[in-house]
Design brief:
about 325 residues, alpha/beta, 3 domains, five-stranded mixed beta sheet
């Protein structure tokens, strides 16, 4: 039954589908092009936001089989946010545009292609809960080993330890580590710095990371002037804090990833494709709702959600 000035459930599904990928203005054009229906901006916005908010509370009944090993990655991406402050009569003058971090996690079985996402614009603690949530969706059970790859952000490492404890371990993204090696390479050989860097990378991959660390330390000890901002000292301090998380050989021997490229590409497809389109600025609650909408669709729960909507209509 469709109420006056309302939309049928199939039309709401169409609106929400387009609205999850495109601006509301573009959604109006797409619906007119494909269905010959003219819909107002207000209707598109209202319907999309309604279902986006409901997706926050939606819990799928689908369960994944137990995985022996799960790959978990987490990273942050800045999104444009509008906050309201002040009491000016002109509400536009009360708005402040800022950037906040949308924290996205995914987990998947070692030999599985399906990634299960969870994310939030919120505190590190909330992001840690989402990290655990997607691991459970991917099939983490008693005895499952969790292999993480992170870019070195302290909050990610802290939350990984808190949520997974002795269940697993994480590596520092290999390519982030190589950026620091690049900064240090000139201190070993100006003419053949690329050669030294390749040799250093090979040491990391073959379990000789402590040997490399001592080599860098020894070179620093022999410097007459030690500039804290120099590339070699930056590299030393970066490795010193993360030495237990750069043993790439163990992961490579098990066929596990050492790079965080999966989560970086996921940010582009899951978050940035909609939340960072030109001209888009969000209230936090609306951005989180849209994020949940897109995440649930990526997780494969789209059809299940609309079946539930038909059942309760």
């Amino acid at each position: 039954m469709v109420k006056c000035k309302g939309s049928s459930l199939p039309l709401q599904r169409v609106i929400t589908d387009f609205g999850a990928d495109s601006s509301y203005g573009e959604t109006i054009k797409k619906i007119k092009e494909h269905y010959g229906i003219e819909i107002s901006f207000f209707t598109v916005q209202k319907v999309t936001r309604k279902h986006a908010q409901q997706f926050i509370l939606f819990k799928s009944q689908t369960t994944s089989k137990k995985q022996t090993t799960i790959i978990s990655q987490t990273d942050g991406s800045m999104v444009p946010i509008i906050e309201t402050e002040g009491k000016a009569k002109d509400k536009r003058k009360n708005r402040k545009a800022i950037w906040k971090e949308a924290r996205l996690s995914f987990a998947r079985g070692k030999d599985e292609n399906q990634r299960y996402y969870a994310g939030i614009i919120g505190s590190a603690e909330k992001a840690g809960e989402k990290m655990m949530e997607c691991a459970l969706l991917a099939g983490m059970k008693e005895g499952t080993y969790v292999h993480g790859v992170i870019d070195g952000a302290p909050w990610i490492g802290e939350q990984f330890k808190l949520k997974f404890s002795n269940r697993g371990n994480y590596l520092i993204d290999f390519f982030h580590m190589c950026e620091y090696l690049s900064k240090a390479s000139i201190w070993f050989s100006i003419s053949e710095k690329d050669k030294w860097q390749k040799e250093a990378q090979e040491k990391l991959k073959t379990g000789r990371h402590k040997e490399l660390f001592e080599e860098i330390k020894s070179r620093i000890d022999n410097l007459e002037v030690k500039d804290a901002s120099s590339g070699i000292i930056e590299c030393y301090h970066y490795m010193e804090k993360r030495l237990e998380h750069i043993n790439y050989k163990i992961a490579l021997d098990k066929g596990l990833p050492i790079g965080s490229g999966e989560i970086e590409s996921s940010h582009r497809s899951v978050i940035q494709k909609r939340l960072k389109i030109a001209g888009a600025w969000w209230k936090v609650e609306n951005a989180n709702a849209m994020l949940h909408l897109r995440i649930n669709r990526f997780n494969g729960y789209w059809e299940e959600y609309w079946q539930l909507q038909r059942a309760v209509a």
